[in-house]
């Protein structure tokens, strides 16, 4: 079995789990929330595409 890639390690434990949407203008988000988004390349690209 091949070792997990960095992206797969990030995704483990977050698959198939509904999460409350982030509300950066309403809630004071911790830096770890932003770090998680930045490390999750697919989500980061989609968020960037939506905002631009």
UniProtKB/TrEMBL annotation:
<dbReference type="GO" id="GO:0005634">
    <property type="term" value="C:nucleus"/>
</dbReference>
<dbReference type="InterPro" id="IPR035075">
    <property type="entry name" value="PRMT5"/>
</dbReference>
<protein>
    <recommendedName>
        <fullName>PRMT5 arginine-N-methyltransferase domain-containing protein</fullName>
    </recommendedName>
</protein>
<dbReference type="GO" id="GO:0005829">
    <property type="term" value="C:cytosol"/>
</dbReference>
<dbReference type="GO" id="GO:0016274">
    <property type="term" value="F:protein-arginine N-methyltransferase activity"/>
</dbReference>
<dbReference type="Pfam" id="PF05185">
    <property type="entry name" value="PRMT5"/>
</dbReference>
<dbReference type="InterPro" id="IPR029063">
    <property type="entry name" value="SAM-dependent_MTases_sf"/>
</dbReference>
<dbReference type="GO" id="GO:0006355">
    <property type="term" value="P:regulation of DNA-templated transcription"/>
</dbReference>
<keyword id="KW-0949">S-adenosyl-L-methionine</keyword>
<dbReference type="InterPro" id="IPR025799">
    <property type="entry name" value="Arg_MeTrfase"/>
</dbReference>
<feature type="domain" description="PRMT5 arginine-N-methyltransferase">
    <location>
        <begin position="6"/>
        <end position="46"/>
    </location>
</feature>
């Amino acid at each position: 079995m091949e070792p997990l890639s960095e992206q797969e390690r990030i995704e483990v434990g977050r698959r198939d789990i509904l999460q409350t949407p982030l509300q950066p203008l309403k809630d004071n988000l911790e830096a770890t929330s932003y770090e998680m988004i930045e490390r999750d390349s697919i989500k980061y690209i989609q968020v960037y595409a939506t905002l631009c």
